Amino acid sequence: MGNYDISHNQMMAKVTLKSVPDKPGIAAEVFSVLAEHGIAVELLTTSHTGRTTGDISFAVPQDQVEAVKARLEGVRKEVGFKSIDSDPGVSVVTVHGQGLSQDPAAASRILKALAGGGINLQMISQSLNYLSFLVNRSQLSRGLDVLKDL
After folding, report:
1. pLDDT in tens, 52-104
2. Cα 15 from Cα 68, distance rounded (Å)
3. In the listed set 87, 102, 118, which residue is the last one of a domain according to the structure?
4. Which of 67, 79, 84, 146 is the right S-S partner for 117, CB 3.0 to 4.6 Å?
5. To 5 degrees, how large is the angle CA 107–CA 105–CA 100?
6. What is the mean pLDDT of the chain?
7. How many CB atoms lie within 10 A of CB 113?
């Protein structure tokens, strides 16, 4: 794929904390608990779901999803979220390369190609040199093929 490298983590799980209070320190509390137990996260995103609440979603290795849920259930009252949803059938794909920062249309081309291939993206994160996204594991192979053809 041009000047880009593609990597993926196939066996991932998406975790979403629902109706988290929207106030300073909540995300720090959540991710401190996970860090204390050696659990690293990818693709952290937040979204507002009300005036005073939001959801926090992130990806973890599939084999750690039960430990993540157990650790976070232990702080549910202090953090104040309503529930934990998880999907153990996802993969993270990352496109790396300086072209992403040098070409304003690069992300658009990548996302359009994936859409044209019928790939549904559950989460997206971009920085200057990478574009990462979460897909259903059943769509991983097709998504990688689409990216190869760019």
Report:
1. 999 999 999 999 999 999 999 999 999 999 999 999 999 999 999 888 888 88
2. 8
3. 87
4. 146
5. 55
6. 94
7. 16
Q: How far apart are CA 121 and CA 111, in angstroms?
A: 9
- Tell the residue number behind the tokens 């998406």, with chain if given: 14
Answer yes or no: are the C-beta atoms of 97 and 129 closer than 8 Å.
Answer: yes
Question: Domain residues for 132?
Answer: 5-9+90-148
Query: One-letter amino acid identity for 135?
Result: V
The CATH number assigned to the domain holding 127 equals 3.30.70.260
- pLDDT on residue 99: 83
Is the pTM value of this prediction over 0.90?
yes
Can you give the pLDDT at residue 17? 98
Nearest to 87 by CA among 141, 123, 35: 123
The Cα 17–Cα 83 span in angstroms is: 6
Q: What is the 3-state secondary structure (H, E, C) of the chain?
A: CCCCEEEEEEEEEEEEEEEEECCCCHHHHHHHHHHHCCCCCEEEEEEECCCCEEEEEEEEEHHHHHHHHHHHHCCHHHHCCCEEEEEEEEEEEEEECCHHHHCCCHHHHHHHHHHHCCCCEEEEEECCCEEEEEEEHHHHHHHHHHHHCC
What's the structural domain count of the chain? Answer: 2
